[in-house]
Amino acid sequence: MDFIRSCGTLVHPTSFPSEFGIGDLGNKAYRFIDFLEETHQGVWQILPLGPTGFGNSPYASYSAFAGNPYLISPEILRKKGLLKKKELDEQRISQSTRVDYDRAYEIKDALFTLACKRFYERNDPDEQKRFRNFKKENASWLDDYVLFMSCLIDSGKRPWNQWNEGLARREKKELQAARKKYRARMDAQYWVQFEFFEQWMALRRYANKKRIKIIGDIPIFVDHNSSDVWANKKYFDVDDTGNRLLVSGVPPDYFSETGQLWGNPLYRWTELQKDGYSWWIDRFRQMFVMFDAIRVDHFRGFDAYWEIKADAKTAQNGRWVKGPGEKLFVAIEKKLGKLPIIAEDLGVITPNVVRLRDRFDFPGMKVLQFAFDDPGNGFLPHNYHSANCIVYSGTHDNDTTLGWYNQAPDSEKNYLREYTQSDGTDVSWQLIRLGMLSVANQAIFPLQDFLELDGEHRMNFPGTTENNWLWRYTDEMLEQIDRDRIRHVIAISNRNSRDARIDSNLSDISAEEP
What is the pTM of this model? Predict the structure, then answer.
């Protein structure tokens, strides 16, 4: 993906309308792509797509490689002949502006059981050939993942370091016994991943065909309770049975007075380097199968990361430790070539982080909600020193622009009104306009800001684990967006995606809406 001048929308698939409790990759996802095309946008940015664990957070996943099964569309399964209309009708619930995770899991687990059984029973030759190829091409992570999930489900989803010690240590005899015991459950997990990637890649082809590129998201750290750590303990700061020793987080900052204690096990970078960073290379390779570009979350952690003892209660008492720096990205570039990577460079950024970002020409991020405390603030458009950046009104970690403005200090409100020569009654669109007219190559805005929604529609509160990742929109909300206004500001800011060149290797593959 060339970071040419264009614009787009940030919204996660869980936020799509649905009658099954959670947004998915079905016809509402295709309708959203159509909305981007209708408004001449060229970018769709999402959050991580992995299977979510604790708190339903996309940043706490059971795998850095797998897909979230609950994004699978039951309607697509019906069109494939794996489900019946009556079976879907019995499970439908009304649309809502909040994800109902518990109900969605209950509904989809029941439907997936039926669909999986029919998939294996009909034994379609073409389908089975694609299935075999999928398993072969992804064996490096998939085999461990399906066994991990089978054991995890049987344990009531207790963390793997609380399983029996032999299984936690991955002793050969225990692994063999588990594969035998969970054969049927593993077969179901193989099918779920196959179906997720079939649906996701079809959606990506549809987007690329309409000249829309997808920006994915790769968290720097992985969750402790994941197949990645269980299967690759030597790369992570855990003891022989999997107990965490040192964990990740950030010191006190804009979002939290006590910092953020993420709790992910830290990497043993020396061990990773011995293997030529092969695990990371495989991870990036997988991301670029799925996306046209990726945002690397907490990019500064590659230069230096905040190390916290595993038994700490907050992130206040930690220390900065040197990360792999450019050695990692040199290794990745040597194997995979120059990649379209976006550096999430928010927070306290040192000159070394800037040098690392600029060494590989990674665009950084500018967030307008952070801009209005001082004329010299680097997030103000007149202070952008390069077009090689992406401007946002806010991200998934911010309040909506209207919610932010309603709670902002009077001094910041006054400066924003002066800066935009406005009275503040149209603040969401004022920031959209500022970002669009800036020199930044990319301008991306949360869908909530196009909808001019208040803080009740916020996606995430950093540093908290409850009531996050819930926001959804309805069909009516999407249709009410002022498309002419979007097209106008895109036109005057020279960001029309119809003038953009698509160079994705998937762009010439035809795709049909399900």
Answer: 0.94
